[in-house]
Design a protein that fits this description.
The protein is of the alpha/beta class and about 450 residues long. It has 3 domains: about 5-130, 3-Layer(aba) Sandwich (Rossmann fold); about 140-380, pyruvate-formate lyase- activating enzyme (Alpha-Beta Horseshoe); about 385-440, OB fold (Dihydrolipoamide Acetyltransferase, E2P) (Beta Barrel), CATH 2.40.50. The protein is built from 14 helices and 21 strands. Helix 2 links the parallel strand 3 and strand 4. Helix 9 packs parallel to helix 11 (about 285-295) and helix 12 packs parallel to helix 14 (about 360-380). About 40% of the residues are buried. Bound molecules: S-adenosyl-L-homocysteine (SAH), iron/sulfur cluster (SF4) and FE3-S4 cluster. FE3-S4 cluster binds near residues 15, 17, 52 and 169.
């Protein structure tokens, strides 16, 4: 009998949503009898789970796919698939640059990947399969059992309706669809029974969550998740400032498992640019949210995303962003240089004289990065010579017997330990801090 099982290597680009999709995909492929390998040299099939958010993310994946496709010359069985957001943005256009691709499968077809692979292998086909985008997302695939791990990303939404003028996500992931409350609770209950202690709820606009069937909004969902016995910590990302309301703020006072750390993407501090971005909030609203959160948790960790060099951004606009950053003192931030995405309305403006030069973008980037280093260093210093409770997640990247966990403020803490501590809470006395990490010893 022919063997249709393969050694498959998955490479993931982009956001936490993609990371979680790859974990689920790995589990689905293993269930279908394939072996998922860590080492790309061992693979007979390479699947790239791609991201379209900026041009750089796309060009990296194209370059990688081109190099992988060369393996076909040596191995007739070798196959390469583009999955994820590039598959839905570019579809068959990908064949112009990568004519030998075997699969182009958008994120909405995640649950069908094993079946698509099986059909290709059975038919011994070398024709590229371009999967269409289904109307409804198959959320049940996220109930697939995953390997034991202390922390889990839990998708509660797909897609986004916001159409911020710079953003490709509504095109790649489609309209906002909310995962049924029952499916979310089922996954988390199962995960907790398997040893998960911390969940991070994922969505592009998590706080706009609304499940029609059970008539559950985001704060009600948080309360329901909070009631799950054995779950210790809850986080979520990303909330949209426009959907922040009193109910969500109150969750920070009422739900002790909700960690005092929040990722609040502001994008810009200039009301003029926020309007051009179609963000639907003002800098005043941001300051209000931060003020309200700090009334409840004075030390709450607040991180953000910022885009510099949006079309039409002047020095004055940038200064407003800088001042907002300075006023809030974000302890973590992802600063992006604006990258025009085809079909978005801002990309059209980029072509006009509103476009900001690369050198100006780079200068703005550097100015915000120094501010970030200052605030992240200060924020982390407050933990020096204190004892922090961490959930041990796994081995640190470097150092023998070095392990890593995070405190409730989402700060990475490295210490010397043993494998059996993974998944437990430990008290760590902090002896050293920097802008990015804390180090200490088990008490
Ligand atoms: N849904 C989230 C953002 C998801 S995309 C939100 O609305 O906040 C992650 C980040 O990528 C965004 O916050 C934004 O800062 C950045 N980003 C999105 N499109 C971009 C573009 N065209 N150029 C540069 N950065 C971009
Ligand atoms: Fe993109 Fe805006 Fe939706 Fe976030 S809210 S995913 S930035 S369109
Ligand atoms: Fe990228 Fe798609 Fe996530 S475009 S950021 S992988 S939703």
């Amino acid at each position: 009998m022919a063997d249709f099982h393969r050694r498959i290597w998955i490479k993931t680009y982009g956001c936490q949503m993609n990371m979680r999709d790859s974990e689920t995909l790995k589990a689905l492929l293993q269930e279908a009898g394939h072996t998922v390998v860590e080492n790309e040299a061992e693979a007979e099939i390479a699947l790239l789970n791609t991201c379209s958010i900026r041009d750089l993310a796309e060009s990296k994946a194209i370059g990688k796919a081109g190099r992988l496709l060369k393996n076909k010359r040596k191995n007739a069985r070798y196959r390469v698939g583009i999955l994820g957001c590039m598959a839905s943005r570019q579809k068959e256009q990908l064949l112009k640059v990568l004519p030998d691709l075997d699969w182009i499968i958008p994120p909405q077809k995640l649950s069908e990947v094993p079946e698509i692979i099986r059909k290709t292998l059975e038919n011994d086909s070398h024709k590229c399969i371009i999967a269409g985008i289904p109307e409804a997302f198959e959320f049940a695939c996220y109930e697939q059992k995953l390997p034991t791990s202390p922390c889990r990303f839990v998708p509660i939404q797909q897609g986004c309706n916001m159409r911020c003028s710079y953003c490709i996500v509504p095109t790649t992931r489609g309209e906002q669809q909310n995962r049924p409350r029952s499916s979310i609770l089922h996954e988390i209950q199962q995960a907790v029974a398997d040893g998960v202690k911390e969940v991070t709820l994922l969505g592009q606009i998590v706080n706009a969550y609304f499940d029609k069937t059970s008539s559950t909004n985001f704060t009600e969902l948080l309360h329901a998740i909070h009631a799950i016995d054995g779950l210790e910590r809850i986080r979520f990302m990303s909330p949209h400032p426009a959907f922040f309301n009193e109910g969500l703020i109150q969750c920070y006072a009422e739900l002790p498992k909700l960690c005092p750390s929040i990722h609040l993407p502001v994008q810009s501090g200039s009301n003029r640019i926020l309007e051009a971005m179609r963000r639907r909030y003002t800098r005043e609203k941001i300051l209000q949210i931060v003020g309200d959160l700090r009334k409840i948790h004075p030390k709450i960790a607040i991180s953000t995303d910022i885009i510099v060099g949006f079309p039409g951004e002047t020095e004055e606009d940038f200064q407003q962003t800088y001042d907002l950053f300075d006023a809030i003192g974000f302890d973590m931030a992802y600063i992006f240089k604006y990258s025009p995405r085809p079909t978005t309305s801002a990309a059209e403006q980029q072509k006009t004289d509103l476009g900001v030069s690369e050198s100006v973008k780079e200068a703005c980037n550097q100015r915000l990065l120094s501010l970030l280093t200052h605030y992240s260093t200060c924020y982390n210093q407050q933990f020096l010579h204190t004892t922090q409770s961490i959930l041990v997640e796994g081995r640190a990247h470097r150092g023998e017997n070095r392990f890593l966990g995070r405190n409730v403020y989402n700060k990475k803490i490295i210490f010397t330990g043993t494998e059996d501590l993974i998944g437990t809470f430990q008290a760590i006395y902090i002896k050293k801090t920097s802008s990015s990490v804390l180090e200490g010893d088990i008490v």
